[in-house]
Design a protein that fits this description.
There is one protein chain. α2 links the parallel β4 and β5. This protein has six helices and five strands, in the order βββαβαβαααα. About 45% of the residues lie in helices and about 20% in strands.
Length: about 180
Amino acid sequence: MHRLLSIDPATHTGWALYDEEIDRTTWGLEDFSAWEMYGPRALRFSRWFTWMLTKQIKPTLISIEEPHPGRKNRISARHWLGWLYVELQRQAVALAEKEPVRMEIIQPADLKTFATGRGNASKDDVLDAIRASMPGRQAIWSKDIADALAQNDLMRYRHDIGEGYLVPYCDRVQPRLAV
C-alpha cells in the first residue's frame, strides 16, 4: 500500500496526501508567514515536516515541487525558499535511511504541462484545472493546495497508484487510441 505525500514548499506550504489503503486524498495548507524572522519560521517548518513524516502519515513516496523564487529580488526570500528545499530533501533522506521511502523532485513546468497542457501556465490555470477535475475539488481556495494536488495526481499517474486522479491534459483533449 502506498502513501503519497506531495508538497508545494513556500511561505504558504500546500500539501496533499493520497492513502491507497483507504483510497482517499486529503490536503491542507500550512502558513509559515508569521511576523518572525526566517530562523524561527524555519524551525516551525522543520518541526511540522518532521511531525508529518514520522508521527502523522509515514509516506512511502514523497514528491516536492522545486521552488521558484519568482520575480522577487529580495535575497531573504530566495534564502527562505532555498532553505525550505534543502530541509525537505534532508529530512526525506533521513527518513529513507529508516524506512523505504522514495523522493522525487517535480519541475514546475512538468506540473503545469500535466495539469493544463502548457508549461508556462499560471497558478490560476492550475487551480481551475484541479477544480474541474473532480466534484469534491470545487471548494479548493488556495493555489498552493491546487499545486500540491496536481503534483499528487501527477505522481499517481506516473506510478500507476490508485484511480480517480487527474489524467494528463493531452489525454483529456485527445484520448489515446487502443492498439
